[in-house]
Structure formats: C-alpha cells, structure tokens
Design brief:
The N and C termini lie far apart (about 50 Å). The protein is globular and about 45 Å long. The protein contains 5 helices and 2 strands. By secondary structure, the protein is an all-alpha fold.
Length: about 180
C-alpha cells in the first residue's frame, strides 16, 4: 500500500501538467487555417510550374490564379479582423500574371500566416462587431469571419484538388505507399 501511495504522489505533478485547457476560438481558427492552408501549400508545391497557367476552360481561374485568389481572400479576411494587408498590396487587383510558382507559393504562405495571426490577435469583445461585404447589405458579425475564412480556404482547396486530378497529379497527403 505504501508503494502505491508513493507512486501516486510521484505521478500527481505529471497529471497536472498533462491537463490542457480547451482551445480558444482564436486558437481553433488558427489551427484550422494552418491545417487546410498546409494542404493547399502541399498541393501548390506538387503541381508543376508549367501547369500554373492551366484551367479547365476560359471561364474559370487557372491553377496559379486560384492560388493567388486564396492568398487574396486570406488577406481580405485578415483585414476584416482589423489587420491591414502589407503596405503597397492592392487586394482588388491581385493576380498571377507574371508571377513564378515560387512567388505564388510565397504569397500563399505569407497570407496564411497573416490570417492566422489576425485571428489569434482578434479580441473576444469585438466578435459581435458588424461588417458587410462590398456590394452586400447583409450584416455579419466579425466572429463569422472565422467560419467564412475557413470555408473559402476549403472551397478552393477542393477546386485545386479537382484541377490536380484532371492533370493526373495526386494530392501528396493521399498518396498510397
């Protein structure tokens, strides 16, 4: 019995440190953006540069255009969370024209970090502040930006998966070993 009590006393500090607090909304958001953002980055890296101008038809964005659009959306979502885009960045006129694969991937990675940091810094007391999208009179609260940003990221991840598969490229995370 003494031995059991000794073991329990010795393990008690470990039990305290093993407990974790639930994630905040901000941490959940940043984690999800990181997970799906990483998937987009993996796919962007797996698609050859000569396919960045490829699109299934003339009415939709190319591979490179879609990746830049994701970055544009990430910066826009960060702006809705009160963090402006980098100085000199024109969100309304962002495109893939003349950009290399490396430049596009760098832009994507930086945008993922920007929206994660904006989300992590966004205070709870501002979650109910309202905004409208340009050209839309519907009022949303800023807490919904967390959902909208992840939805946008997932929508275009799906698009890029379809583009990759049409070009016989398997998403890296689903390769069979």
């Amino acid at each position: 019995m003494k031995k059991l009590v000794s073991i329990l006393i010795a393990c008690f500090p470990l039990a305290i440190f093993a407990q974790t607090e639930p994630l905040t909304k901000q941490q959940d958001f940043a984690q999800m953006v990181g997970f799906f953002g990483d998937r987009v980055v993996q796919l962007a890296e797996a698609i050859p540069e000569d396919k960045y101008d490829w699109a299934p038809n003339d009415e939709v964005r190319s591979v490179g255009g879609s990746i830049v659009h994701i970055a544009q959306g990430n910066y826009f979502m960060a702006m809705l969370l009160d963090v402006p885009p980098p100085a000199g960045m024109d969100l309304m006129n962002m495109n893939a024209d003349g950009k290399s694969k490396k430049e596009i991937i760098t832009l994507l990675k930086e945008s993922i970090t920007a929206v994660q940091e904006a989300g992590m810094a966004f205070p709870d007391e501002k979650m109910m502040d309202e905004f409208s999208f340009p050209g839309d009179t519907t009022k949303y609260n800023k807490g919904k930006v967390f959902f909208i940003a992840n939805g946008h990221l997932n929508e275009h991840l799906g698009q890029l998966i379809a583009y990759a598969r049409m070009n016989k490229i398997t998403p890296p995370w689903s390769l069979q070993e």
